[in-house]
Amino acid sequence: MVRIKRAYEEASTADGCRVLVDRLWPRGVSKERADLTEWLKEVAPSPALRTWWNHDPERLDEFALRYRAELDSQPETKAAVVQLRALAAQGVTTLIYGAKDPHVNHARLLAEYLEE
């Protein structure tokens, strides 16, 4: 099972394996508070794609297509996806992200991608 959770929410034992999936560390969150199992920057959207998207809800559908293409094509991203799927196969895995909107963020799209 793959879940998503904002980095600014309290960690919980129900989160299982906690994996930060952003390229940048969330501001103001200590390593202790984050309580991460892993930080996989490689599964985050490329800087160019993230800049183009700019978390614009109107671009979400096109962003999703481009992001999936990145997940499918880049060798380092593919390896990180394999690692995430292996973690998820062992139990609950929570993808940690820093964005404000729980619906307009790449972690939600990544969770859907992993569960397919």
Automatic annotation (TrEMBL):
Highest rank taxon of the organism: Bacteria
InterPro entries registered for this protein in UniProt: YeaO-like
A Pfam short name: DUF488-N3i
Name listed for the protein in its UniProt record: DUF488 family protein
Organism, scientific name: Cryobacterium luteum
